[in-house]
Amino acid sequence: MSVIVEFFTAPDDASAALALRTGPRRAFESVSFGNFDPEEAVVEWQCLLAGGSFDDLVDAGEPRPVAGQDDDGCLVFAISPGLAAALAEAGGSELEDAAVAWSSQRAADGEVIGTDIASVILGDLAVLARSARRQGQEVYCWVA
User: Fold this and answer.
1) Which among 22, 51, 86, 117 has most CB atoms closer than 10 A?
2) How confident is the model over 50-90, as pLDDT tens digits?
3) Helix or strand (DSSP H, E) at 135
4) For the domain bounded by 5-143, which CATH number is listed?
């Protein structure tokens, strides 16, 4: 499980890849979290907010890696356009329902993510997705 999870906006993959070594905070708008598996989470969120099967999304290559280093474990991946759109368009009750469902899914797998924390994560990520949309940018995640 990662220690640092930062979702951020960037104009393209090449720009996002620059965050690999130092993280996105200095160059990009970002929100920071920790202690959950963001690669699994973004697929679960897409299932909850935009539909689709977890296995089908993983088979389709979600989340899409942008840059990574094996030696230090850092990774940058892209949030799918479908998830970014679903987050940007979601209302408060839809985000709350998704947070409750995600928290329950994690609990079923033995991982404790409270619904309050899940709500904050999805709410902050929705704000970031809306900002990215207004700026014509994409949403990425840096994991360290």
Assistant:
1) 86
2) 998 999 999 999 999 999 866 668 999 999 999 999 999 99
3) helix 115-135
4) 3.40.1760
